[in-house]
User: What shape does this take?
Amino acid sequence: MSYINENFMQLQESYLFSTIAKKVEKYTKENPNKIVIKLGIGDVTRPIVPECIKAMHKAVDEMGTQEGFRGYGPEQGYDFLRKAILENDYKSKGIDLEIDEIFVSDGAKCDTGNIVDIFSEDNRVAITDPVYPVYIDTNVMSGRSGRFNQEKGIYENIVYLPVSAENDFKPELPKEKVDMIYLCFPNNPTGTVLTKEELSKWVQYAKKNKSIILYDSAYEAFITQENIPHSIYEIEGAKDVTIEFRSFSKTAGFTGIRCAYVVIPKTLKGYTKDGEEVSYNKLWNRRTCTKFNGTSYIVQRTAEAIYTKQGKKEIEENIKYYMENARIIREGLEEIGIKYYGGINAPYVWLKVPNNMSSWEFFDILLEKVNIVGTPGSGFGPHGEGYFRLTAFGTKENTIKAMERIKRSKNLLTK
Amino acid sequence: MSYINENFMQLQESYLFSTIAKKVEKYTKENPNKIVIKLGIGDVTRPIVPECIKAMHKAVDEMGTQEGFRGYGPEQGYDFLRKAILENDYKSKGIDLEIDEIFVSDGAKCDTGNIVDIFSEDNRVAITDPVYPVYIDTNVMSGRSGRFNQEKGIYENIVYLPVSAENDFKPELPKEKVDMIYLCFPNNPTGTVLTKEELSKWVQYAKKNKSIILYDSAYEAFITQENIPHSIYEIEGAKDVTIEFRSFSKTAGFTGIRCAYVVIPKTLKGYTKDGEEVSYNKLWNRRTCTKFNGTSYIVQRTAEAIYTKQGKKEIEENIKYYMENARIIREGLEEIGIKYYGGINAPYVWLKVPNNMSSWEFFDILLEKVNIVGTPGSGFGPHGEGYFRLTAFGTKENTIKAMERIKRSKNLLTK
Assistant: This one.
């Protein structure tokens, strides 16, 4: 009799994006003349840059010839890409890593999800709230969450680290001991960041408690201010306590191309119940060689092209384009007196819903009266209630139009 | 304190391909004038067919334009590919499936590996021996194997189903009750197959015991004989008890492109400990949406091109090319009186090592005296001892040359 993994029964259905889709569909059906602008989902809209397209065509041609054809590649990624990552994302910024500390994959969602495989089921997990739901759901599936408390809207064994305007979106160190800590900065969904000093506290905590930090820096390319770390490895000692996740999805618009990487320093250790030290790099390497067969050769050549001089220039222009949208959103909100956070070092603007409306009430008004779609903060966790996310990933034209509409609706939204 | 998943400590290091690589390296270094022919690893050598290359270029161009750009796709795969799979691989063969029973992925290794996520840790697992090591190792990692018995070379909680010349490579039904059964036909490494009648027994067993069959048909495109099922769903009732894994890796040479799919019928149920029925399709869909972000758009367009009239023709030519190699290998072995199996419905020839040599002894002679690399059967499990795998994935020229060498070495190999 084949039994299921009953941890799945603890998963809560996420209706966030499907509810949004249904509401938008209903509205547009009933109001066919209205043009709805979507600033909701965190997906990019700019096409892949020419330098990457060129590299892709070249790799495709190679695959069509006897001499150029490549079959199975290394599970961990081709050296050409791992070297480019090492040199450009780390060494040039004074961070010393080795090539076999970098694992190329087909996406940060896979990496942040699959990483749970190498940890004990008994680890106590701390997660910021609101949060990217993958961190929670993958721990539910693998048995670390405990039961869901319907009343409180939280899992009983997860340690939630609230971030809100009250603590300036800086999570506080947990009072109890935790073994695994998920941090994402620049943050999705709030768009806020930590300074080096603030992040240092977490590294110190992890060192002291032999905990591990799972650090998602998928949005580091959007950082514009000084003293905001792009990599957690800029913090002294972080290599002993942190796995870092990076993605080309937002940096280079690879959401449909699929490429990311994870860094696991060789000095990073986990423990058996008997206290034996084990290298997480070795565990992940074994997991990778057993359950993964490498990222598409063509995709890896495309990612490599990001690091050429021309590639860097083109990518930077895209990032500037999106951050200009963020500026337009921020200034629009400022003009009508809606409080907001983020949008300076991240493509997300996290606004405080005015007039004590709930996130979903604000969503409905914005959709029906202003014809703009955003994402209700409560969809990202209990402490997201009362907030709302707008993304800078639309086109500039739409972003300008959207903010003009919002400004025109000032009385409706803020009175 | 971050604890590791201690199941990983039970994994046995696989030295198979690394030992082969080392031995070959040593030999070629010491004998720089010898040209070694490799018929060892199961990787293809023919370039991607023109129809696929054309489709890939087109998709790449799309991604470089504002109108054609695609971001996140459906986690389960684009409908255009799922439909093509449904129509061509199933409906046209009289198998009725629905589009949401097909999940597109980046490789069958990922699928056969990740599938363990949805099953209870307590399930009893049966695996043929010799076998593709991923089935075993992923169950070790997820806690279903028990301890490794060094003396016997087996995991204590795994039910091994021996296949060898003694049972004509037809695994016998397990005497004890098992919950999960891994079957791969046409088989890797033995290249042997089951008829519909033989496969029916397994479906009946699974029905009777409410077990699940994990059926890997990655090599179905190589079947040349009648009455050999390409899909397990050709067997009545199989949809209630089977997950089927398919891959474009061998069919269309996608080992470096990365695309595969898994079929999970909606009638397939698992059970909670309380006896509640749960749909595996739903569980896998949830797993997919949580830990995966879809296969590259470009890759999916490439896979779609396999199903055009021209694509099918080109793919078929490649398959014929490899099966001609298999014929050359078979006839060569026959000529010098080495017994072999497989090679008729699969790109693998599984030969019985002559003179009671061990698999590794035969490997050494073949490398050092005949300058050919194959794979020792014992590397695939205890019951592979005394066998040896040659693959048809080389070039025709090399395969001819290799068999001429083997024939010339008749006395050395068989006396």
Q: What stands out?
A: The CA atoms of residues 60 and 201 of chain B lie 47 Å apart. The first helix of chain B runs from residue 16 to 30. Chain B has two domains: 7-47+310-414, 52-308. Chain B has 13 helices and 17 strands.
